[in-house]
Structures are given as C-alpha cells and as structure tokens.
Amino acid sequence: MIYIKSFVFNPFMENTYVLYDDTKECVVIDPGCYEEYEKKELKAFIVENDLKVVKLLNTHCHIDHVLGNEYVKKEFNVELYVHQLDEQTLRSVKVYAPSYGFTNYEEATVDQHLDEGDIVEFGESKLDVIFVPGHAPGHIAFISKADKICIGGDVLFQSSIGRTDLPGGDFDTLINSIHSKIFPLGEDFTVYCGHGPATNVGTEKKSNPFCAVA
C-alpha cells in the first residue's frame, strides 16, 4: 500500500508529495519548498518517519513545482527524473525566477528521463508513467493501479483544469489528455492535484465545467 503525505509550499500554494510504503522507501514528487522553513518541514517528516528517499520526480517543470529540486537532490543524494520534453522548461526557470522574487533559486540538473510506459519503482510499490501534455509540453502523471491513485500535477483540478496560456500550453491538447488518459483510469481513482484538494475521476467526469463528458 502506498501512503501519501502532502505539503503546501511557496506563494503559488503548490502541492508537494511524498509517497512511501511499508518498506520505508519513498519518492518525492514536485518539491516546491523554497524557504528554509519549508525545507525543514519536508526533511522533518522524512526523518521522523525513518524514510529513505530513492527518487526525485517532476510531473512538469514550471517554477512552483521545482523550487526545491536542488535541495532534495543534495540533501538526500538522489537523481532527478523528468520527461525529456520538459527539460527545457526546467532550464528556463533560472532566467525568470528573479522576476518572481526567487532570487536564491538553485538550478538542478536532470539525471534521468521518463516517458509513457515507464515504471517507477520504490520499495514494494510501482508507479506507471503516463504522458499528459497540454499544461506543459512534457507533463507526465504517476499512476498506481493497485492503490487507484493518480499524482496528476497541473492537468486536472477539483472543478478546474491546468492553465494553457504558458509556453508550450495548449487547451485542446490538455482536454485530450484528460479525456484519453485520466478519465479512462476509472471513476474511483483519486487524483492528487498540483494545487488545491484531491478529487476523483468520477466527480470530475460528471461535473467539471471544463472537461466533463456526457
């Protein structure tokens, strides 16, 4: 069984996730921690629960989801995994980070690429990788069929969807990703979003004002 701990970090109110199982191995997904107290909060949970971080994953590489990448890489000596098409998105962060007030942003280098069909393993758990572009060109999501969960980043939100007006975004592509990749998972799948509360596929399929289907 996969256990999920979420944190809300940085002014964008981004959700950072730690996924772990009974082996105590864990992965960190989209670390948005920037301030020292945020980094300490993340580390404290990992240390207090005797967890071992084995991988660092990004659903996509917009600034709010990667502010803590370098911290996690250094602190826990792990590699960073992203989709190849979002590596340029990550590289661009250092250019515009100061304009958002993140003058101490530390850039992290990518170690491994992930694509649809890949499987991320930790402990006794497995996460399937699916490709869900539209919000970002190399956006991916992480699926546990056994636990019926989706770590979805900024694709689908409770009663909303990810914005598509940023570089590499496209509304039609995003809607297609939701309809062809997220909704078919099953109505009882829980979607852990990049911002805001978790939701489930069934609710969004029926009532989301942007992407519900009849």
Automatic annotation (TrEMBL):
Q: Which InterPro entries does the UniProt entry name for this protein?
A: MBL_Glyoxalase_II, Metallo-B-lactamas, RibonucZ/Hydroxyglut_hydro
Pfam families referenced in this protein's UniProt entry, alphabetically: Lactamase_B (PF00753)
Keyword terms of this UniProt record: Hydrolase, Metal-binding, Zinc
MF terms (GO), sorted A to Z: hydrolase activity; metal ion binding
Q: Tell me the superkingdom of the source.
A: Bacteria
Q: Which cofactor does it need?
A: Zn(2+)
- In its keyword annotation, does this UniProt entry include Glycoprotein? no
The segment(s) forming the Metallo-beta-lactamase domain are: 13-195
User: Could you tell me what this protein is called?
Assistant: MBL fold metallo-hydrolase
- What organism does the UniProt record list as the source? Fulvivirga marina
